[in-house]
Predict the 3D structure of the following.
Amino acid sequence: MKMAESVKKLLKRNKPGTKANCFRKWPDEPFEEMESTLAVQEFIQQQIRIDPSNIDIILTPPDSQEEGVWKYEHLRQFCMELNGLAVELQAECLPDTCSQMTSTEQWIFLCAAHKTPKECPAIDYTRHTLDGAACLLNSNKYFPSRVNIKESSVAKLGSVCRRVYRIFSHAYYHHQNIYNKFENETYLCQRFTKFVIKYSLMAKENLIVPMPDAIMQGIRTEEDGTTSIKEP
Amino acid sequence: MRGPLTPFSLPAMSLEEGSYTGGKPGQQQLQQQQGGGFGQKGDNGDGGGVNNKVKYTMPGVLHFIQHEWSNFELERAHWEIDRAELQARIAYLQGERKGQDNLKNDLVRRIQMLEHALRAERAKYHKLKYGTDISQSEMQLPSASSAQDEYSSLPEGGADSEAPLSVISNVSWKQGRQLLREYLHEIGYTDTIIDVRSSRVRNLLGLNNNNNLNEIEQGQIESSQINGNNYNKRFSDNQGQCSPTKRTQQQQQQQQQKKLLDVESAVMANFEFLSEMRSTSDSGDVDMDDDGVDDDDDDDDEDDDEMGMADDVIDMTSICKFGPDDVDAEADEVVNELQLLTEDLSNKENEQNDWKVSNRDVFNKNSNNANWIKNEPVEMVDGNMDLALGLGELAQLTVNNESETNADIIDMKTASRKTWNAKYTLRSHFDGVRALAFHPTESILITASEDHTMKLWNLQKTIAPKKSASLDVEPLYTFRSHTGPVFCLAISKNGEHCYSGGLDNVIKVWSMPSANIDPYDSYDKNILINNLEGHEDAVWGISVHHNRSELLSCSADGSVKLWSPTNLKTPCLSSYVSDQDEIPTSVDYVRDVEGQFVASYNSSHCVIYDIETKSPITRLECSKDPTEMATQLIHRVKCHPTLPLTITAHDDHHIRFFDNNTGKMVHSMVAHLDAVTSLAVDPNGLYLLSGSHDSSIRIWNLESKTCVQEITAHRKKLDESILDVAFHPSEAYIASAGADSLVKSLSSKCLAVELSSNRAPMHGPALILEVSTKSCCELYHSVNSKFFNASCLASNNLSSLVGFWGGEAILSSTGLTSTELSENQLAVIVLGDLESTRERDLDLGFSSSLIIGLSIVCFSPVSDFSPDEVTAISHLLSTGQCCGISFAYWSQDGCQPGFETFWILDLHLSRTDGELKIITLTDMATEISQSKTICILAVVAGCFAILWPSLFYPMLKGSFAPQTHTDNIYQERTPVHLRASKASMHPALMEKGRAIPQPHIGPRHGSPTPHSFKPPIPGSRPVMGGMGGASNKITGGDGGSAMNILMPMYTIGILLFFVYTMMKV
């Protein structure tokens, strides 16, 4: 169906009626041949489709790819895939059980989506963070184009990463079964960790979800202290 | 005496019976005869029984004779009546013929006139072009005369006329038409005259039609009667007794022959005239003849495919084409009329033959009648079909005409008339947006994306633009529950639920969040009401119906399922699987008929199912050729909201239209440069919106099938571009969803929607969609379709308000009185231009009990209304149960961004106990003057502010220079170091600093901006023309150069002006 055998040039389309197992099953295409303006996103999605566990390949930009756009598109992809984790968490992470956004006992995270940062329940924090990230990453002000990204806007990516990472850490420390299941399917946290390390978007001491050494490349600093409130 | 009396009383009784019951003279006489015979027999028998000898008593004989006499008298009276009837009919037909003759003469004259003009024009043109006089017409003559021969021989010989016609190119046809139009206008044939004429022609045509049918029907009835009687032995035995029948038959025959001759001669004359015309006129006219000839050709099978529409569709199109006003349409009509006549002729010939046969040999009547039975229905069918074909062709022709003329007009005017303008870009999805759905009443949009989420947007809750020009809308709510891309979306008709389906095989039922929900509210689990599980593969389509609670879905598992969305236990009601086709690609309820839905399959067929019986009703097939079918995958199927019409969007760039009743393709058009992915029909059924992978959305006029507007909306991701489009069911929004994860929302400058939804008193929103702010002539062509649509809505008993556009609509709407708008139907009449209606009678001819709300939109200032006009309107309202009226007015120059574009004058009239009370009457004039005063004050203040720093301030304070306040003023100026270097220059010349952006002050909320009163800034010339936007009269602040000299004068001038205006105000 979708393969559109009769068409000479294969069109990468999901036509209505496409079966789930044929969805987005296109032959791979090198980045150079991707013509559309959204080639970076296409390329990232293609690499993930090929093998989600092969993080290094996924995070390797094609030659001559500008780094800002690369980071931006990756972060979009992370936020998008994190929706999946949020869906899982919605079922289990209830305001009664997780009334605060915590990971380790060290920090209580305040939700930055509100006018005055607020102590939202974990699930609200998750949703609000993702919604806020979606708004920021799609903001006409900071990211008017997906082809060129201003240097000043690239700086925003770090804060998005920092907040989004807390979803991983909350899931890991409070809903480990969900986290494991999700991670086994998507390798998302591993990819994310690798990503932020590679592009120095987060301080290493904040990466509190245990990772295989290959990802973390060794060092992880444990920080001790009493529980305190951390500003967003 | 008892004995002898009985024989006579018996026939008398039967006679009377005969005279009363037997409608036909023949029958009557037959019965009389029969009765007589019986009476005699009985007489004999009786006589034999009682008294062997028959006694003829004098009174008995006299009685009998008297009876006979009275019988004959009775019969004669009958015949007289018959004769009178027939004579009346003859007179009627003659009158009709005369009317048509007149019409024909009229047309001939007109065409001759045109011809003449054309010839003159052509000669002129030729002369201009080649510098010589023409020999062209002479050149043309031989061929034309040969054509003439051909044509004149046509009625008898039926010569094939195809050959000479194919030569004519389309271009010259169009040119000719354009010329004709122009000439018509030149000689003063305005559109309305033509319209009226054409409607008259149509009336005649309609009458003709009816007569024709009546006759045919009569013939049929008679034939069946005769046929039925045929088996009656007595009838066939007593041939001689049939004389009255025969007589009437003869009479009819004579009459028909006469009529035939007339008709024939008329047709001949017409043909002669047409061929004459052909000989002299240009190719356009020839083509017209051609059409006539084509029409004339009864056995023209080529048209069958095109004509495969059901009768009602044809009727509708023919109604729809009521609008076209060009001469060609009319000419076509005339040609068609001729065709009808000839048809008439041929039918009658057939009939006549049969009549003859039946008359000539009554003994063989049995067999002949058998022929009748066999032949006649077939002929009838043929005749009807021809009729239908003729009409259909006519419809097609005129539709084409209209489309062409429309196209012309659009070509000329569209540049200035863009109905839909991009309003918002909705950016929040991370991946391609697959589906869109509008809330039925509020301006809420829900989008479904491949990023596994759906988002809810309130298009009225915008975030004020800070830097960028485009408004930002942020999603109010994000629906998260799908574990895969979401493909389809629908909102229930009451707006309480929405449904979504996607790759994860589940259809989710959501309750609709409030329109004013806080985007960062806490999570409520109950928003997800139900999961409809049952599909085994991706769900690709969902459809809801406006008065059914059930939900239809189609899935890649090959089934279409019907769900009860709120049933938690067993939501799936039934499943429909086609045995011939594989996978459904899209599904939609059939809107004009209850209990049906249409599903498109990846075999490129559509099937209409009955929901209850689960059986396929109609199969819509576009092609038999399997190789073609492969490329014709249907991306989307949609049903017309009111007509039995299914529209399909195909992979091969086509949009196809199918008739639901016959299953035949009605129309097919190449609509886009790439696969057409999505369709939406506007709630009135007038416009079609299509989106395609070629990145554009197009708006089509459904009636003429022409593209009204094209908007390039999205970028491509992979090879996909636009994935869905939608019309708002009640407001003037459309939206498109793209693979580039954007949603674009467009709105039309639709004043009337606001107007009617806010102002139409008491009765909810009106369905008015297409609005141009300016010219109502542009909408002229669509008026009749609106009109038609109104009747459509009315017949469907929708309690919607319907808008009519343009001054012309008033004329047309006079036809829309009691018949089409039934009780409880509401109407909003929007008069496009009261200026033009002023000359006309404001009595709209409505039986005014039907009018409940009346809105008047006009282009002339309301203050210009004379009291008489207001009285006229209120009189109109007072005669009925009309309970409200509203006016809207906006400036002649149309909308300006940032401006309040119109002022509404409320004039609420309420009717209580037959009395009109004006509740509120906001007077336009005083309001304007108030706002004017404010404007003037503001401008004067601004002028002072301008003058202050450069003139007065230095004068007063000498060289005193205060500290700068640059931080407080948002203004672009040259940097300090540049300024320093040019310190010698006058401040006014030093820079052309950009003024503070014009404050957007409408007349209503005009208020001076605080900037105007800021302390002066040395070194920079402050704001100029601060209030300039509000008033045209004041064009102050133009003193950039030579300020030293001009300023004092300028100031004095302003002061004078100020005093003057204050005096005046």
Q: What stands out?
A: Chain B has a mean pLDDT of 60. Chain B touches chain A through 57 residues (CB under 8 Å). Residues 58-130 of chain B form the longest helix (73 residues). The two ends of chain B are 114 Å apart (CA to CA).
